[in-house]
Amino acid sequence: MAEQERPLVESFELDHTKVKAPYVRLIDEEQGPNGDVISNYDLRLVQPNENAIPTAGLHTIEHTIAVLLRERIPGYIDCSPFGCRTGFHLLTWGRHSTEEVAKALKESLEFIADKASWDDVPGTEITSCGNYRDHSLFSAKQWCRDIVDAGISSDPWERKVV
Ligand SMILES: [Zn+2]
């Protein structure tokens, strides 16, 4: 396939040195043939190329926010970690402001930092997870505390902390 025909991936066009994490950014909205809208968000928890959440903590955050964000965001579809371990993609049906998403994320990370016990982390058995040995609630709590204390912005370039 010729270079100019390769699909453009928006996330790889973003200048990762210009953003100010933690933030929520709308990546794009896609409309299906029946008019349904799916929104894709960049939930950036730590500063790219300066920090990365270790896999065990990130994995535990992933399992726990799958429930917490689903409870708080109507039309929640999925939330999956970036391979660079600096945050997550969030997919939802319909449109939500980045303020709404940032508030739901803040509440969820606050819950993990302050209240979550092992019982709040779903899917940690050999039958329900692909790498059940690689979890750390201790790490998840520490990272969530630091992220909440840094403040989650509804804008990636200008600090608009919710
Ligand atoms: Zn898992």
Automatic annotation (TrEMBL):
Catalytic reactions of this protein: S-(5-deoxy-D-ribos-5-yl)-L-homocysteine = (S)-4,5-dihydroxypentane-2,3-dione + L-homocysteine
Protein name, UniProt field: S-ribosylhomocysteine lyase
Role of this protein: Involved in the synthesis of autoinducer 2 (AI-2) which is secreted by bacteria and is used to communicate both the cell density and the metabolic potential of the environment. The regulation of gene expression in response to changes in cell density is called quorum sensing. Catalyzes the transformation of S-ribosylhomocysteine (RHC) to homocysteine (HC) and 4,5-dihydroxy-2,3-pentadione (DPD).
EC number(s) per entry: 4.4.1.21
Gene encoding the protein: luxS
Lineage start: Bacteria, Bacillati, Actinomycetota, Actinomycetes, Bifidobacteriales
InterPro entries: LuxS_sf (IPR037005), Metalloenz_LuxS/M16 (IPR011249), S-ribosylhomocysteinase (IPR003815)
Keywords from the UniProt entry: Autoinducer synthesis, Iron, Lyase, Metal-binding, Quorum sensing
Keyword Metal-binding: yes
